[in-house]
Every structure is written in structure tokens, then in C-alpha cells.
Design goal:
Layout: H1 6-9, E1 13-16, E2 21-30, E3 37-44, E4 61-64, E5 68-71, E6 74-77, H2 85-88
Parallel strand pairs: 1-6
Antiparallel strand pairs: 1-2, 2-3, 3-4, 5-6
Protein name: PRC-barrel domain-containing protein
Domain PRC-barrel: 4-82
Organism: Thermococcus cleftensis (strain DSM 27260 / KACC 17922 / CL1)
Length: 98
């Protein structure tokens, strides 16, 4: 296993496996109890429409660590595992029968 220092990830570009430029690593969010990395907090690309992506209160993208396919010169994100708002919405409740 190759070890990578978190400080080396700052400003590394995130790109989906379908070629969409998401942005650049801004920070990492950890589980306080286990120390596991939960999400990559990323500064979105200026051309990215963030309305469908999960963002924090500052507009930064929240990319689940489980979506990372590879880390190198860029970080490749599995687009099928990327958190988007439409996946988080609940389906409408069925109407009560009359």
C-alpha cells in the first residue's frame, strides 16, 4: 500500500471517470472516533453547475471517499458513486386512498 500525506492532496484536481472536471481538493473530513476519511471537500470548478451536487454551507463539494477510484496526478472519481442531490431525495409519499 502506498502512503500519501494529506498535505500532498491539497489543490489536486478531481475528475470523474466520465471526464467531468469537479474541482480541487480543499480539505478532508474525518470520523472523529475512527479517524476514517469520510469525504473530500473540494473547491468546485468554475464551470461546474453545483446545483445537483451535495455541497456544504459554503458551496464546497462533498465527495464521498468511497467514490475515489484512483489517486495520482489527479483524483479520479467514480461517477456512479458520486453523491448527487437527486440520489438523496426521497420519493414522494403515496397519496392516501380515498
Amino acid at each position: 500500500m502506498v502512503k500519501i500525506m494529506a498535505s500532498k492532496l491539497r489543490d489536486v484536481e478531481l475528475i470523474t471517470d466520465t471526464g467531468v472536471r469537479l474541482g480541487w481538493v480543499y480539505d478532508l473530513s474525518f470520523d472523529e472516533e475512527t479517524g476514517d476519511i469520510l469525504v473530500i471537500v473540494a473547491e468546485p470548478d468554475e464551470d461546474l453547475d453545483t446545483s445537483e451536487f451535495v455541497t456544504d454551507h459554503e458551496g464546497l463539494l462533498l465527495v464521498p471517499i468511497s467514490a475515489v477510484k484512483s489517486i495520482g496526478e489527479v483524483i479520479i472519481i467514480d461517477s456512479t458513486k458520486l453523491a448527487v442531490k437527486s440520489k438523496l431525495r426521497r420519493p414522494p409519499s403515496p397519496k392516501p386512498s380515498e
